[in-house]
Amino acid sequence: MHIALRSFTALVILFAITRILGKKQISQLTFFEYITGITLGELAGFISTDLEAHYLYGLTAIAVWFLVPFVVELFTLKSLRLREWLEGRGTVFIQEGKVLEDNLKRERFTVNELLEQLRTKSVFNVADVEFAMLEASGDLSVLLKSENQPLTPKHLGMRVAPDRETKAVVIDGNIMDEPLAAAGLSREWLHTELEKLGVTLENVFIGQVNAYGQLYVDLYDDKLQVPQQTDMPLLLATLKKCEADLTLFSLSTASPEAKAMYEQDAQQLRRMIDQVEPILKR
């Protein structure tokens, strides 16, 4: 019972220390943080199982190993030199498409390990890489050559709708009121949309709303097919039909005034369609 109590106390202390030191302590470990994490774990095991040693000795050691890294982190925020000394610098492995063998040897990195790291970045051909650097955290950053980079709408001169955060409004059949309110929607709206889709709230595993008020649901019952949203495509088709009608009216009328009016309206509608089409096609 005594060991269980000591272990639980050590667990609570370690959890609190990790929360204070921040997420960086468990995501991107530098050399200093790596040593600190191992030592704190050893000390926690020591105070949990070594019944002959005084409990306060272990707590004192943990306090020292917590305070020193915490103070050092505060100093590294203001000192670039100290930051580089403690955290290290990145090492360039590939520059201008050429592998720097000396840098690989300095970091004790084999060619196989380099290729493995590149594959984790979905790069299977070294010739496609313009620049690659091993960061201080141990992660490999890769820049592809211009001709091998993914094609984006910007390259094609296309306008796309801005992306915003999607809100999870239903999780495990329960309505999430806070994300729903953040999206400017209500429970009544959600129930109405679910009725349109023909599904019940209890059968929804997850429901998300995008920035344009479209609801996506994934059901517990995978055999049920959820109908696709047709409001936006239908609106786009209606706008294009109106533009075609205006163009047709301008061609069929004999009045110059009416012809000019229809052509002007068709051009204005065309400009409006160009603005909203990226949104309505989402």
Strand portion: 5-15%
Mean pLDDT: 80
Low-confidence stretches: 23-27
Total discrete domains: 4
> How many DSSP-defined strands?
8
Largest sheet: 4 strands, antiparallel
What is the string of helix and strand elements? HHHHHEEHHEEEEHHEEHH
For the largest beta sheet, what order do the strands appear in spatially?
2-1-3-4
Query: How far from one another are the termini?
Result: 60 Å
Helix- and strand-based class?
A: alpha+beta
Shape: extended
Quickly count the helices. 11
Helix fraction, binned, reads 40-55%
Radius of gyration: 30 Å
Pfam family, one: YetF_N
Main location: membrane
Membrane topology: Multi-pass membrane protein
Protein name: DUF421 domain-containing protein
Tell me about this structure.
The protein is an alpha+beta fold. It folds into four domains: 2-85, no CATH class; 91-148, bsu07140 like domains (CRO Repressor); 152-228, CRO Repressor, CATH 3.30.240.20; 231-280. The protein has eleven helices and eight strands. It has helices at residues 2-21, 24-27, 31-49, 55-76, 80-87, 101-106, 111-120, 177-182, 187-197, 231-252, 256-280; strands at 91-95, 98-99, 129-134, 140-144, 167-171, 174-175, 204-209, 215-219. A four-stranded antiparallel beta sheet has the order 2-1-3-4. A four-stranded antiparallel beta sheet has the order 6-5-7-8. The longest helix is centred in the last third of the chain and has 25 residues, at 256-280. Mean pLDDT is 80; it is low at 23-27.
